[in-house]
Amino acid sequence: MQVWHDVAEVDPNLGSTIVTIGNFDGLHRGHRHVIERARQLAAEHGGLPVVAVTFEPHPLTVIAPDRAPDMLASLAERLALLQELGADAALVLRFTPEFARIPADDFVESIVLRTLRAAGVIVGENFRFGHRAQGDLALLERLCGAHDVTVIGLPLDGSHGQAWSSTYVRDRLAAGDVGAAAEALGRPFSIKGYVVKGDQRGRQLGYPTANVPVSVTHTAVPADGVYAGWLRRLDDSDAHQLPAAISVGTNPTFDGVERRVESYVLARDDLELYGAMVEVTFVERLRGMVKFDSIDELIDQMKTDTDRARELLATPPPTSTSLPAADCQDDPTATSQDDPSLT
User: Which of 193, 338, 339, 340 could cross-link to 217 by cystine, CB 3.0-4.6 Å?
Assistant: First the structure.
């Protein structure tokens, strides 16, 4: 897939295209519907290329930083998913204060029509664009219609009367409902990050864990609790997904303060993962976070958790296209101030 990181990089001799526009955070089923319809329209126009226009960083990071959401996927992951779904090219627009001030009609005229030479545009029906989000589907239809460009606005259909959206996925993760998040995404939710070394308390308890501090994942993370899921190291192309019991939280039994994701690979104490980039995939929540009164009580619960995780993960996960690691610039050799455990 061709990727342009600036309008100036787009080939001035580019022919007609089918354009779709959005943040595409997480590439949930609503986004997939939009990309699929864009491919259909491209075929109807004789096989035109599909160009996905997206923004980096998320617009709210610039417009209202206090309301900026935790992202469901890094830019690298979004681009990989767009390619997997059939986009032929992607234009990544750097969202800056200056870009935010571009009038809606200028955005359409300069980028959609002049630069990308759109023959058709596919967006979600709630699509907004331009300065102060003044542009909507009706304006897009009017501006493009003047050039005989087809515009299609699609509903982001979901289940149970709930439209698929990145906000819905984040809400489900915040509630610990990783199953509903997976349904909306069309795949289990996962995070990626470097494994850091703690004081090895989990190893002392018989449950060594791979510790990924939440503060450096740069993505949304499920609610505190214990989950069944999978762990895979990303620096080894032959690495398999390994069944794991996953803890998200601050280790309340040991009065921890740093929130992190810790994964105990079932029945394995021989893994050397410090400094490795790993992917942690969430399958089902086992319980909420609890502060135990004693170490013995904690160990008993950890056995219950791992037994339950083993039952849930008896069937290996389906193989899927490997996505690139999240853009993570943090030092992988940094040490955690808290100890890994399944508390």
Answer: 193
Under 8 Å between Cβ of 343 and 292: yes
More confident residue, 122 or 238: 122
Q: Do 148 and 236 fall within a single domain? A: no
Q: Does 254 lie in the same domain as 119?
A: no
Dump pLDDT digits (tens) for 72-93.
999 999 999 999 999 999 999 9
Helix (H, G, I), strand (E, B) or coil at 292: coil
Strand blocks (E) in the chain: 2-4, 17-21, 50-56, 89-94, 118-124, 150-154, 190-194, 210-213, 225-233, 242-249, 260-265, 277-287
Query: How many whole angstroms separate alpha carbon 162 and alpha carbon 156?
Result: 9
Crossing angle between the packed helical segments 75-85 and 29-44, to the nearest 10 degrees: 50
pTM for this prediction: 0.86
Whole-number Cα distances in Å, 183 to 6, 30, 70, 189, 233: 34, 11, 19, 10, 24
Place of tokens 């791992």: 306
Which H or E run contains 310? helix 295-312
Residue 156: which residues within 8 A CB-CB, separation 6 or more? 30, 33, 124, 125, 126, 163, 164, 165
